[in-house]
C-alpha cells in the first residue's frame, strides 16, 4: 500500500511555498506522490482568477517535479461527503494523507474523516493551539506538523506584486496572459 498526499486549494496563483510544502511532505512522511487538487469554487473566496488559468499554472509548477501531479475532480470544491469517498475509492487500496496549511487546519471542525493529516505551519501560527484543537477533534495522533521553506508565503501577497516567489514558468504564464496586474 502506497501513501499518497492530497493537497487541495485555490492556487491563485500556485507559488513556491505550495511546492515546497508538498515536496517536504514527501520527504518527511514517506509519501510516494502528492496530488495537487485545485478547487473551482472554493469556500469564502471571491474574485478568483479563471479556473483554466489556475489549472494551467498548477500544471506548470508541478511539471518539473516527478512526484507531484495535478488532479481534477468534478465537484466545484473539495467536500467531505462527495469528494472524499470518491478519492478513497479511486486510490484504493492506497492510503490517502491530507495536506493543509495551519490556517486551514484551524477550521477543521466541520471536516470529520480527514485523516491522517500533514499540517504545514504558517507564519506565526501557534502549534500548541492547533494541537489542542486537533486533539479535541481526535486527529492529533494522526497529524504530522511540518515547517517548510517559504511557509510564510500567501497567494494574496503574490497577486499584489511579490512575483519573485513563483516558478519561472508560472511567472511567464502570468505575464503572457496579463494576470494579477
Quick summary:
This protein has 181 residues and is an alpha/beta fold.
Topology:
Layout: E1 3-9, H1 16-29, E2 33-38, H2 51-62, E3 68-70, H3 83-91, E4 95-101, H4 102-105, E5 117-120, H5 127-136, E6 143-146, H6 155-159, H7 168-176
Parallel strand pairs: 1-2, 1-4, 2-3, 4-5, 5-6
Outline the structure in words.
The protein is of the alpha/beta class. It has a single domain (3-176), classed as HUPs (Rossmann fold), CATH 3.40.50.620. Helices cover 35% and strands 17% of the residues. The chain is built from 7 helices and 6 strands, in the order E-H-E-H-E-H-E-H-E-H-E-H-H. The chain has helices at 16-29, 51-62, 83-91, 102-105, 127-136, 155-159, 168-176; strands spanning 3-9, 33-38, 68-70, 95-101, 117-120, 143-146. Strand 2 (33-38), helix 2 (51-62) and strand 3 (68-70) form a beta-alpha-beta unit. Helix 2 (51-62) runs antiparallel to helix 7 (168-176). It is globular, with a radius of gyration of 16 Å. The chain starts with a strand and ends in a 5-residue tail after the last helix.
